[in-house]
Design goal:
single chain, 134 residues, alpha+beta, Lambda Exonuclease, Chain A, five-stranded mixed β-sheet, two-stranded antiparallel sheet, 4 helices, 7 strands, 40% helix, globular, GxxExxY, GxxExxY protein, PDDEXK-like_dom_sf
């Protein structure tokens, strides 16, 4: 994928998330939004994976770590869902770490505990995105 395709994927996924948020509203558990969003994404033809295992290397030690990344869409975008009063820097750090370990170029940090999901979504890119062709 190139930068333009991944950016479009991000917009499309956000649109699906906004549809879920409009339909069910704020204040539910993260797991409810996750199930609804998976349904919405798959109905639009996206490939969705949950809690993917990724290798983690520490010096000579290789660990198979089960990451808690909520969703990966089309192997190019990580979605990290939250239902919190406000997003914190630790949430951003968590998403960036998942993106780096899984070598995924873009991520969306979404807080469904809000009246306006688009204003409570933080898009993030990393070095893998920057190295993609335009």
């Amino acid at each position: 994928m190139n930068k333009k395709e991944i950016t479009q994927l991000s917009y499309d996924v956000l649109g699906c998330a906004i549809n879920v948020h409009r339909e069910v509203g704020p204040g539910l558990l993260e797991s409810v939004y996750q199930k609804c969003l998976i349904y919405e994404l798959k109905s639009k033809g996206f490939k969705v994976m949950q809690q993917v295992k990724a290798p983690l290397y520490y010096k000579e030690l290789s660990l198979e770590v089960e990451l808690k990344a909520d969703l990966i869409v089309n192997e190019s975008l990580i979605i990290e869902l939250k239902t919190v009063d406000c997003l914190l820097p630790v949430h951003e750090a968590q998403l960036l770490t998942y993106m780096r370990l899984l070598k995924i170029p873009q991520g969306l940090l979404m807080n469904f505990f809000s009246d306006n999901l688009s204003k409570n979504t933080i898009p993030m890119v990393n070095e893998y995105f920057k190295s993609l062709p335009d």
